[in-house]
Amino acid sequence: MNPGPAAILGNGSLLVTLSAHARVERLFWPRLDRGSHLGELRFGFERDGVTRWLDEEEPEEQSYLDDASIVRTQTGGVEIVDLVHEHEPVLFRRVSAPIAGAALVVHCRPELDGSTRSLAASVRGDYVVFYRRDVALAIGARGARAACTGFGAVEGGIALPFSGEAVVACAFGRSSREAVSRVEAALQHEFELLLASRRAHDAARIDSAAEPESGEAIAALYRRSLLVLDLLADREGGAVIAAPELDPDFVRSGGYGFVWGRDLAFIVLAFLAAGRRDLVEAALRWLPQAQEPEGLWLQRHWTDGSLAPSWCTHQLDETGAILFAYEAAWRELRDQALDAALWPSVRLAADFLLGTIEDDGLPCVTADLWEEREGRHAFTAAAVHGGLRAAACFARRHEAALGDTYDAAAEEIREAIERELWSDFHGRYLRSLGDPTLDASLFGLAWPFAAVAPGGERMRATVAALEAELAGADGSVARYGGDTYAGGHRWVLAALWLGLWHRQAGDEAGLERALRYAVTAQTGLGLLPEQVTDDGEPAWVVPLAWSHAMLLLAARPELGLVGSHDAIESPVRAPA
Length: 576
Fold this sequence. Notes:
This protein is an alpha+beta fold. Helix content is 36%, strand content 21%. A hairpin with a 4-residue loop joins β1 (7-10) and β2 (15-18). α6 (316-333) runs antiparallel to α7 (336-354). The longest helix is centred in the last third of the chain and has 21 residues, at 378-398. The chain is elongated, with a radius of gyration of 25 Å.
């Protein structure tokens, strides 16, 4: 499967994906999960009736400029620089080349809200604008001539005499008038000033975060990870999508342009570790809006908090992980107002989780972490344990009588993990009742939930088995044996998860190995994919928010909540 995209740009409202050939692939607006609004947007040079399309040229070089969300592409002797305004939904593209006697042409075939029907278009001076209901896209440049078809399956574009350099602006609005107004305003600004403004904005975002505790190679990836997560965080609501959508018709997957509660819980932990309090608070205040009246969070949501298309009845680990993130926020921020605002959500969720514990002490049948199997899983049990321990801490601050109830339930699950999910025959923990498959989700028994002793003999035996079967010599880690999803390659987040366990167990060298692997796994532009092939090439989704979150967590000191759990000695020693 081809990974995608090569680069992303945005501002929390507009999200743009670019190919390695500098082709604008997708445009999402006014939220990161609405769209894509684009069928085709192409740039080229026209001379004597022949058009040389720039996205058909072999790219020579592509990179982000400095530590900023600005992309520079060199292709066929042409320089293309792309940026999104830090506040307005406007994409700017500057094209520079030693070419004369040609016209720069821009052709657009819109698919507003993914539709090719019921569209309209019009020309207004130097601009062409496409519109459908409350989404309009305008494209323009100084001195351009615009053209378009009228309505239905519309297309159009602009052309302008080219003499070494030109700047094109693409702007969204709620109406054709608003979109055109934004293009007109945008083109009043000098491009160099726009570059400086975007650089300053991104530098301020990076400076607001804590420094990583690693060398420059890790520091550069850390800074890029901060910017990536900034671009994937919805500015209006605070939720973070898993990745820019690349499979909207669910042909090869269930799609990625959605918010998973579990992913967001890990991302919140990453924001806490990185000191991004603003993003922490926005995400935490979003979560109760997506919570079901019964107290749980269902599989995934749109950024407005409404339920998204799903294929699992529920994944109980999500609810447990969210409660854990709530308590982690208290330990790091000590924000009494935020804590009080979250308490009703905590109580509702914790009471729901109490009802999922069955007679043997484990949570009931649910979907696993990877959303592939129904069963009773070790990771689910660990997350619910961690969530109930977190709820007990909350209760002692807000309704003390409930603290012992939640703690007792968490202890019941911990004992059941040791009794039901430890296998003397295999000498390790099982990923699910009756399923001994070695699975990276078993790291979650220790990190971050500490449902078992992270450095205890049983967990060490389990990790040793996981490393023997799933880990590569280069530091890569597969999800589980026999994985076939999207090629069944190695997962970046699994490698970092192993590193986080090593640190938790007192092995800093193991963490460093994981960080070194992450550096090799990044793309040329510093994006972390979901998967990496045996040849070290990115596979499938790029960038994956969870991968970048795990990088932040690994590059910063351990969070207080994760480091505060006292070691729990297993009642039975692991066999030699």
